[in-house]
Specification:
This protein has 183 residues and is an all-alpha fold. It has a single domain, classed as AhpD-like, CATH 1.20.1290. It has helices at 3-9, 15-25, 32-46, 49-58, 65-90, 106-109, 115-129, 132-144, 149-176, 179-182. The radius of gyration is 16 Å and the shape is globular.
Length: 183
Amino acid sequence: MSIESIKSQIPDYAKDIKLNLSSLANDESLTQAQIWGCFYASAYATGNANLIQAIEAETETKLSEAEKNAAKSAAAIMAMNNVYYRFAHLAKNKEYQTMPAKLRMNVIGNPGVDKKDFELWAMAVSVINGCGMCIDAHEAALRNEGMSSSDIQMAARIASVTNAVAAVLTAEGALSGDIAKAA
């Protein structure tokens, strides 16, 4: 399975999603590791098995094992952090924002890949999970690393399109009764 096989599963009503997927996959504004790491982390964040398998196949020669592991780590750690920090942000009692989270997140300090790449992947996952506090924190870290607004926006674009692809595939799988596609 590959990006092409995923695109063939996207129905005509979602043609814009398919076109956006193609243009983002061929974009050269970021490094290959940054782009495909964003796709990889975002696919894991969606939990859609078909999409994860397609991105896995697509990244066979585009990401190292260390980069794949770090992208999965970004998806995993942000699944926790995005929920916790969204809680702290949304709670009426703002005291939660000043309290230490007391959650292990060592991978953020030592992801095993370029820190900037990991931050970008964590940013993409935070966009999918809708955590404003995490988006702000990763955006600030990326700016400190010298990334431009358009570079950071690229991660958000990849996340949004990857999320849309997963939503379409999940819905189509549910309609067809194909549990594997719906997962």
